[in-house]
Automatic annotation (TrEMBL):
Any GO BP: gluconeogenesis
Coiled-coil blocks: none
Source species: Fulvivirga imtechensis AK7
Biological or metabolic pathway of the protein: Carbohydrate degradation; glycolysis; pyruvate from D-glyceraldehyde 3-phosphate: step 2/5
This protein's record includes keyword ATP-binding: yes
Protein name: Phosphoglycerate kinase
UniProt GO MF annotations: ADP binding; ATP binding; phosphoglycerate kinase activity
């Protein structure tokens, strides 16, 4: 992979894919800045050399059309503060206005494009859409580690148009840290998975079965496994299409190095918003109820395993931590991992919402490494490569812009 210190950026327009998919509250305030902070070294490097910058990112999962709540205009102010200069904004990532603004960009100036996913072409990996984006810059940089597992236009297609394409400093740092840990993990190795992206992440568990000693599953991810074992999960989050995969993984784990540990108890209520909670066995959740957090016995079991582990990976909150009545499981586990860091265990935690939970519990700085990637981190651990890394590593067959 070529890195950004290999050229002089003076007078160049850098088209940079960043991952500004940050959690926002209902007033559109940023709840966690880790991903914006992570991009700063690359941006500062290029601006210091008198280059100019065009930033592109996604935010959330809009359905290919405009959605005010997911507009990247909500991050402009924060960027201006961090970069100590004004940031221009293009209300559509392609089209005439974006082109004009990019063309008139002077050395040291920054332009942020609106959410790429307001166009279906982004997720479809459309070559035409990628071509329009590519025409905005002189050189391409991928610094979006958290999105580099996606074969989306801005990640894998845009770089095909460039001879000059680079991995940014965040991409480099993430790879360096994760590689270091994967090369020499200190046993016992524990992986903690939670969150809501079941379809995306369940597949990575197979590869982890031979790498880890324990795989602790909580959060929304757990109920697909519990249902696969004929448990009653009420209205809890489930991916019906993955039941078979979950069953197969549980079976396979009997012959694997890793032990899969599922929650034994859950904090339930009638909906995520309903604060009237009770603790029940995770396999006996009544029809009208949903599991919103791991229960106290599960927290005890998970904490005890974490306390004996020397390498710990964590992605995905253990409950709906955004709600006070479902936050305790995530807080207890985050604290247990932070305590492990204190006795020199390697602790690698990552993901957009996972990082937001760390911030909420004031545990920033309590881990060996906080990755900006969630799904990307898991896929990199599994394959040691990502489509977005490959895309800035191979020479383009046909280069349309240089
Ligand atoms: N039991 C549960 N039921 C429903 N949702 C849950 C449950 N537990 C956790 N969640 C939700 O999971 C979401 C986060 O999952 P996600 O997989 O996106 O994690 P992440 O750390 O952001 O990783 P990534 O960066 O890959 O998105 C949170 O918004 C949280 O409310
Ligand atoms: O939050 C993430 O993990 C990345 O920004 C990727 O988002 P996605 O899962 O919606 O592609
Ligand atoms: Mg997330």
């Amino acid at each position: 992979m070529k890195t950004i210190d290999e050229i002089n950026w003076k007078g160049k327009k850098a088209l940079i894919r960043v991952d500004f998919n940050v959690p926002l509250d209902d007033q559109h305030r940023i709840l966690d800045h880790t991903r914006i902070e992570g991009a700063m070294p690359t941006l500062e490097h290029i601006l210091d050399q008198q280059g100019s910058i065009i930033l592109m990112s996604h935010l959330g999962r809009p359905k290919g059309k405009y959605d005010e709540d997911l507009s990247l205009k909500h991050v402009v102010q924060e960027l201006e503060k961090r970069l100590n200069r004004s940031v221009k904004f293009a209300p559509d990532c392609i089209g005439k206005e974006a082109q004009d603004k990019a063309r008139h960009l002077k050395n040291g100036e920054v332009l942020l494009l609106e959410n790429l996913r307001f166009h279906a072409g982004e997720r479809e990996g459309s070559a035409a859409f990628a071509g329009e984006l590519a025409s905005l810059g002189d050189a391409y940089v991928n610094d979006a580690f958290g999105a580099s597992h996606r074969r989306h236009a801005s990640i894998t297609e845009v770089p095909k148009y460039f001879r000059e394409k680079f991995g940014g400093e965040l991409l480099e740092l993430e790879m360096e840290k994760i590689d270091l840990l994967l090369e020499k993990p200190k046993a016992p190795v524990t992986i903690i998975l939670g969150g809501a992206k079941i379809t995306d992440k369940i597949g990575t568990i197979e590869a982890l079965l031979d790498k880890a000693n324990y795989i602790l599953i909580g959060g929304g991810m757990a109920y697909t496994f519990i249902k696969a074992q004929e448990g009653q999960i009420g209205k809890s989050l489930v991916d019906e299409n993955q039941l078979e995969v979950a069953r197969w993984l549980l079976n396979k784990s009997k012959r694997s190095k890793a032990r899969i540990v599922l929650p034994v108890d859950s904090v339930i209520s009638k909906s995520a918003e309903d604060p009237k909670t009770r603790v029940v066995a995770s396999r006996e959740i009544e029809d009208d109820f949903m599991g919103g957090d791991i229960g106290p016995e599960t927290r005890r079991i998970f904490t005890e395993i974490i306390a004996r582990s020397n390498t710990i990976f964590w992605n995905g909150p253990l409950g709906i931590f955004e709600k006070e009545h479902f936050q305790e499981g995530t807080q207890t586990i985050a604290q247990a991992i932070a305590d492990a860091t204190g006795r020199d265990a390697y602790t690698l935690v990552g993901g957009g919402d996972t990082t937001a939970s760390i911030t909420r519990f004031f545990l920033q700085g309590s881990f060996w490494h906080v990755s900006t990637g969630g799904g990307a981190l898991l896929e990199y651990m599994e394959k040691r490569e990502l489509p977005g890394i490959d895309a800035v590593s191979v020479p383009s067959e046909t280069v349309l812009f240089s």
